[in-house]
Amino acid sequence: MTRVVSAQRYKVAVVAVIAVAITAGLAARILSDFGWDATAFVGFGEDATAIREYAEERLGEVVLRQAAGHDGKFFFIQANDPWVTEAGDRVELFDYPVHRSRRMLYPLLAGGLGLFGPGLIVWSLLVSNVIWMGFGTWGTARLAQALGGSPWWGLVFTLNIGLVFTLIIDGAGILALALGVWAVYLLYENRFAPAVALLAASALTREAMLVCAIGVATWLWSRGRRRHALVAFGIPALALGLWESYLRIRLGPDSGLPGSFGLPFVGLARAVTQWSREPIVMAFGACLLILAILLVRRWWVGRSLLSWAFIGFVPLAILFTAPVWTEFFDFTRVLAPLFTASILVVFVEDRTASIDPESRAQGPRESIGNH
Q1: pLDDT tens digits for 209-253?
Q2: Cβ of 168: how many Cβ atoms within 10 Å?
Q3: Full residue range of the structural domain in which residue 45 is found
């Protein structure tokens, strides 16, 4: 038995190392095109003059992208001041200071809890995402094993195109999903307390991951575990709410918010007409929609913990506006959790009848939450 467990852990470790190697190789390939300048990943934009000047004052010349750039430029500023001690910088430089600053854990860790300087931060943002890719792949491999599948399924985390895009703009989505996957895995192992802590950390990395906490809480509630359900949702929601309250005290309220949501299916319908001009985008969009439908089917039939944890991304997708759905670079990143979770549900959980997900995740009534 000990040899079997050791072999399983070895396979998971191999998968995680391969994930890091793939991700590091991709990062190195991109860096080589920009003279090994890590600012190429941050996403400073030509048109974001104030942020560009902020960066150049601290780093010298930086690599610029077209237009306004990407999210990494906000995380760079946050990492330089993760505790919001200099509120004026964010009010002046961020389009939506509170909204952007909600995603605090990734820049907090990449900024060394506020101890790293700007030159180190641009590298830490990239290197930490390579590490988080391995961490998320490790958790996905362990989850696949818990479902009765091969640990090689962990690579659906590494090869998730949305997470690859997140890597090249120093985004927070890799860490957010990695924490969410690990939380679900720990629930399958009846380790309730650390799972809830990771759900909270995931929401503090990317607020959309709160839907995982809602899904987990609903699954627990449906099985009569109401106290655990309240904790599973309440702790992440409280953590996010307390941080946002602090941000509003420091930064004041945002004047409006980006319009990412609208009427159901309207944005998707408008985007499909544009996808028809781009076959590759159409193929990826269709693949994602098929996986979402299959996830809904599996959720409806089995109501498993895994399907409940990620089913909330389906209604979010239905409500996205046309600008989100139109851009391949955007919708793949936003719905990256849906891609990885759907693959696991459809191709692992749905095909491994030898494992009873309910018994593995639920465990004895008195045991869950005592670890």
Answers
A1: 999 999 999 999 999 999 999 999 999 999 999 999 999 999 998
A2: 18
A3: 2-260
Dihedral of CA atoms 245, 247, 253, 258 in degrees, nearest 10, equals -110
- For 274, residues 6+ apart whose C-beta sits below 8 A from its C-beta are 326
Question: What does pTM read for this prediction?
Answer: 0.92
> How far, CA to CA in Å, does 284 sit from each of 160, 290, 324?
11, 10, 14
Helix (H, G, I), strand (E, B) or coil at 81: coil
Count of domains for the chain? 1
Within a domain: residue 221? yes
Q: Does the residue 95 lie in any domain?
A: yes
Which H or E element spans position 359? helix 357-362
- The two tokens of residue 359 are 């018994």
Using an 8 Å Cβ cutoff, are 188 and 305 in contact? yes
Is 265 part of any domain?
no
Query: Is 288 domain-assigned?
Result: no
pLDDT tens track for 22-44:
999 999 999 999 999 999 999 99
What does the DSSP 8-state code read for residue 83?
T
- 3 state SS of 222: helix
Q: Determine whether 358 is exposed, middle or buried from the number of CB atoms within 10 Å of its CB (0-12, 13-18, 19+).
A: middle
DSSP assignment string, 261-303: B-STTHHHHHHHHHHTT-HHHHHHHHHHHHHHHHHHHHHHHH-
Spatial neighbors of 57 by CB under 8 A, at least 6 apart, are none
